[in-house]
Write a sequence for this structure.
């Protein structure tokens, strides 16, 4: 885990190394100051001399300035190192997520990934900051103060030996009881974020069904659940301060009582008042160091779960990778399925022994009921998933032999769930072709029947699209996504029920535009409406992951019962009694 996280330090190695070194000098200065003060009192006890006061005064000022300078530099380097580490960690996680296949993405909830990129990284950042500064400072401060306490106080300093184990025991017990609660709460964070994401994304549905009160109650339950766990943990951690104060006051009382006794009894020959003052200072430093170590322990234990969750993302291996010597050219848009079986992880077989051969330039329609695996079938073409058994070939080559970018650039998919990103219409269209000219974008939008509504916007093609395309209708969003796909000018273009939100006239115009604009491109149209596919060269009828029939509209009407039933239901054809 440490090796995985350490890779994200990279260019911040220098401040990471310099911080503990500077902290060490800061601790030395702080521990030396009480000793110098005691030496000053000892000199003054022997002989009062302004020169001695001036000399020691200069030394103390210099040491204080050095300590201050070291503290400021340590803070600066620590901030640079920890913030830079967090930046790299988020970048590495985001980059890794971009390499995931759909199967990997299915493994993590979106809300969980958001929590890992935000809350978990912040926790690890704080722990890293503590490790390179406070976790170095506290042990050194503890060791130096303990040593100086024995040098200055002799037997009186034995109080530290008795108090430290008591304090350590109390702090360890506190951390031991609090940590399971912190581990538990992160999973509840995921549920809380999931509730927020689901509610905001479906806000229109929530309002249309007047379910605001229900959603508020659901969120309140998730938020209260997180609050209760944190409250339990904080109640346990609250004991940290009283135990610390008890030990601190006990040490102070003992040192003052025992020190005063030894001063009076030995007439200041064994312990004198300035040594007693130094002992009090060192005692305070020792106990403060222990308290900081306890907080470090708590923070590290809490963030350990965050670190594990981050490493799960970073160490996740994509189920789909490039071959060693990939094919870098897709010759044509032919598609072949040879005895293809497919199943998702921990599920039954979704596609069963699929055999299908599509020639380059063909227009293929696919219909079937919900759950008939239509979308799953087309996702295998661009290798969004890999087949469980059998083989899928594009352009005569197994899709597993292609470079992923080359393959996906030649297989353009307009997914069932259309997604637009924050930015202008032009920004979204250029996802299809980064260097597309204005003329090319307008032409693609005319083919997708999107130009007619774009030009009516006040800013035309420079109109800003809100996150998720919330400021355009479902039909407009679909047409923009189709135009974006057309700009790629691919060898295969797949429409996964991507005209469901447009009227039949617009749907027909889009299909007509496709046939004239990209006649040599293989076109696969998944649709619920038979009207959207009846003009296709061939239509595939799917049912429960099996191809039940292939043919033209007329052929399927005569020999395929499923197709005929769908057609009759959509066209309200049936027996009538007069």
């Amino acid at each position: 885990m440490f090796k995985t996280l350490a890779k994200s330090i990279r260019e911040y190695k220098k401040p990471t190394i310099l911080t503990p070194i500077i902290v060490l000098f800061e601790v030395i200065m702080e521990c030396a100051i009480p000793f110098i003060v005691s030496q000053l009192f000892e000199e003054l006890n022997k002989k009062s001399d302004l020169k001695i006061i001036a000399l020691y005064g200069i030394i103390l000022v210099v040491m204080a300035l050095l300590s201050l300078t070291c503290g400021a530099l340590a803070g600066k380097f620590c901030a640079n190192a920890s913030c830079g580490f967090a930046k790299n960690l988020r970048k590495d996680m985001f980059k890794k997520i971009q390499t995931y296949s759909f199967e990997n993405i299915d493994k993590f909830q979106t809300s969980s990934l958001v929590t890992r990129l935000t809350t978990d990284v912040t926790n690890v950042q704080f722990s890293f900051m503590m490790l390179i500064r406070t976790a170095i400072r506290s042990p050194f401060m503890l060791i130096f103060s303990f040593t100086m306490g024995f040098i200055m106080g002799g037997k009186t300093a034995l109080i530290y030996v008795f108090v430290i184990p008591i304090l350590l025991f109390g702090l360890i017990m506190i951390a031991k009881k609090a940590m399971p609660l912190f581990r538990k709460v992160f999973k509840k964070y995921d549920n809380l974020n999931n509730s927020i994401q689901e509610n905001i994304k479906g806000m229109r549905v929530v309002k249309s069904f007047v379910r605001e009160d229900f959603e508020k109650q659901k969120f309140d339950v998730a938020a209260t659940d997180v609050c209760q766990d944190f409250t339990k943990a904080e109640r346990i951690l609250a004991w940290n301060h009283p135990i610390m104060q008890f030990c601190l006051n006990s040490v102070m009382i003992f040192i003052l009582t025992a020190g005063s006794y030894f001063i009076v009894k030995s007439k200041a020959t064994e312990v004198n008042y300035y040594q007693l003052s130094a002992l009090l200072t060192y005692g305070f430093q020792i106990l403060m160091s222990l308290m900081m170590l306890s907080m470090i322990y708590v923070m590290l234990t809490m963030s350990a779960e965050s670190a594990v969750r981050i490493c799960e993302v970073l160490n996740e291996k994509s189920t789909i990778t490039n071959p060693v010597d990939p094919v870098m050219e897709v010759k044509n848009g032919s598609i072949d399925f040879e005895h293809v079986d497919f199943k998702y992880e921990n599920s039954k077989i979704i596609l069963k022994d699929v055999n299908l051969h599509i020639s380059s330039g063909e227009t293929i329609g696919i219909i079937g009921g919900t759950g008939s695996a239509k979308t799953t079938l087309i996702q295998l073409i661009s290798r969004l998933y890999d087949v469980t058994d059998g083989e899928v070939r594009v352009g005569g080559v197994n899709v597993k032999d292609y470079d992923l970018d080359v393959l996906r650039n030649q297989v353009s998919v307009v997914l069932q769930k259309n997604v637009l990103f924050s930015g202008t219409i032009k920004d979204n269209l250029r996802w299809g072709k980064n260097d597309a000219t204005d003329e090319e974008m307008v032409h693609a939008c005319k083919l997708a029947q999107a130009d007619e509504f774009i030009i009516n916007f006040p800013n035309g093609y420079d109109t800003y699209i809100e996150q998720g395309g919330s400021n355009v209708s479902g039909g407009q969003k679909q047409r923009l996504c189709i135009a974006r796909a057309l700009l790629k000018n691919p060898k295969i273009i797949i429409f996964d029920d991507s005209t469901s939100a447009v009227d039949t006239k617009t749907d027909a115009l889009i299909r007509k535009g496709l046939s004239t604009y990209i006649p040599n491109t293989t076109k696969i149209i998944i649709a619920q409406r038979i009207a959207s596919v009846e003009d296709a060269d061939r239509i595939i009828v799917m049912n429960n992951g099996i191809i039940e029939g292939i043919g033209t509209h007329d052929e399927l009407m005569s020999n395929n019962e499923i197709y005929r039933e769908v057609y009759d239901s959509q066209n309200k054809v049936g027996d009538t009694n007069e």
